[in-house]
Amino acid sequence: MEEGNQAMKLYSHPMSSCSRRVRLALNLKGIKYDCINITSTNHPELLKVNPMGYVPALVDGTIVISDSYAILLYLEEKYPLHSLLPQDLTRRAINYQVASIISSSIQPLQNMTLVNYIGEIVGPEEKLPWAQLHIRKGFAALEKLLMKYAGKYATGDEIYLADLYLAPQLDNAINRYKLDMSQDEFPLLIKLNETYSKLPFFQQKPKNQNHPD
Ligand SMILES: N[C@@H](CCC(=O)N[C@@H](CS)C(=O)NCC(=O)O)C(=O)O
């Protein structure tokens, strides 16, 4: 079978925010794919496509890509329809910035491996405060950054890359790490979270699996 005719395979976990970014992009662009749900980061099939043992990883014919940012850029170039980025250069840059803040300065600091490590070396009671500290710091920056650009969604009235990062990260912060988000501190992020929570598009995950990321 020709490479282009095979459905892509996405190694994913229902509760992983990094996987959710990619699933949202695939759905936004209307791309069919086979989802392989991974329940352990030592899963031999996952380790073959990503030796780090993290999800997500995408297999498209002979192409294997791990790391959500790389996957999203690949999808955007291969399937430009329903672009993940606005035309306007400034708003494009804001989308890159949101993605980068979440993927470099928030998510890795509250990833399961690290949070469990903090629990082991400092104490289990420090796991939540640690995660909350770093999420709050990143959210404070995002709140300021997006104030000038938000519309119905993070950077205007269309769903873009920034929303694909923000919606799962907000969900993680509020539901997993119990971050107390006050109206005074995060009025815009709270409003965006309400918007995401009401849209079935952003709510595509089973609720009954554990995967603290
Ligand atoms: N930069 C990577 C991070 C991947 C990552 O941290 N994935 C998490 C799920 S969101 C994971 O597999 N965590 C399992 C673990 O910490 O062992 C990406 O964006 O894909």
UniProtKB/TrEMBL annotation:
It comes from the Eukaryota. GO terms for biological process: glutathione metabolic process; L-phenylalanine catabolic process. Residues 6-83 form the GST N-terminal domain. One of its GO terms (molecular function) is maleylacetoacetate isomerase activity. GO terms for cellular component: cytoplasm. Residues 88-213 form the GST C-terminal domain. Pfam families: GST_C_3, GST_N_3. SUPFAM superfamilies: GST C-terminal domain-like, Thioredoxin-like. Belongs to the GST superfamily. Zeta family. This is Glutathione transferase.
